[in-house]
Amino acid sequence: MNTELVKQVHWVGYVDWPVRDFHGYQTKRGSSYNAYLVQGAEKVALIDTVKAPYADYLKQNVAAHCPLSKIDYLVCNHAEPDHSGSFPAMVAACPQAEVVCNAKCKDALSRHYDTSGWKFRVVKEGETLDLGGRTLQFFDTVMCHWPESMVTYLVEEELLFSMDIFGQHYATYCRFDDEANMAEVMQEAKTYYANIVLLYAKPVAAAAKKLLGLKLKMVAPSHGVIWRSHFQEILNAYLAWHVSKPTKKVIVFYSTMWQSTRQMAEAVVRGANEFDVQVKLFDLKAVGDTELITELMDCAAFACGTPTLNQSLMPRMAAALTYIRGLKPAGKKAFSFGSFGWASKGAEEAQEYLKAFGCELLCAPITCKFAPDAATLEQCVEAGRALGRAAAAIEA
Length: 396
Ligand code: FEO
Description:
- With 396 residues, this protein is α/β, with parallel strands linked by helices.
- It contains 12 helices and 24 strands.
- Strand 8, helix 1 (55-63) and strand 9 form a beta-alpha-beta unit.
- MU-OXO-diiron (FEO) binds at residues 78, 80, 82-83, 145, 164, 222-223.
């Protein structure tokens, strides 16, 4: 594996092939926790660490380039444990090292770990650290992805350690974008954006605007591949995803008990398919929330169907809508539908979720008692046409 970014700057992280859950995010292609070793003429800095169980791999990777006792600085860009988890082990293994972070990160680290014996060097926005012919510069990136987040810039090499920004949960031994399968990389970058970044789209856009004032030859995130040949692609993608930019796409997803709501979903899809747009149909038994929000992020319009179960919506639909509501995809047109037995509650409750994340509602919930009759199905087809029409109106 080629781990050299530039001379005396190496990737020393850990590739986590089997991980499939990242606090609820289904990481179907695994992940990596990227740490970087920067060696100057006089000082050596480690940028971030890895999840705690993999500290020994990090130590081995560092030791291949430099004895741990020679590390002067342990830079913490972000206190989330996927990057800070090995700090206790590294502080213990690097007795002369100072932990370099901003004030909020110092506080966050102290709430995760016993930091009483740690030597901190607290840095402010724009502050620099001289490694001897090499300069690290620090920039706060508040809420990208936590309040204490910052990034580190290696000035002479025009190399940005961008932390979570531009990352992908993607396990590969190809460390660079031009070595990897770019279709997979971009799919995982999109999934990462939809599931991690979407709620923080505005602060990330503000941070990106600030950071784009820097000269950038290479951008090294904390997960996935390093951008050295295709940075413009990921940047353009971020600009599109930032506003949940709608495309000519309609999503219909549903839960069903005895196929009535599924029949309604199929009728909605028939209406949407009368237009020259992409239409996708998901049974929530067959799709996870991670994939669903990724599909939803760039759709123009969607509908969700749920029967009424125990005077409420189906639990699986409630889980999906709760997840989507938290990430707040913007600018979508939508409606809900579903069957009921003796009192209709499910579709109505689903519609409340749609209101909560700011959807423009295309119609009142479409409901039917037990199985849908022809009139109900025609109502679903007509509502599906409204979805298709909304998507068709999007400029390509
Ligand atoms: Fe990859 Fe917000 O941690």
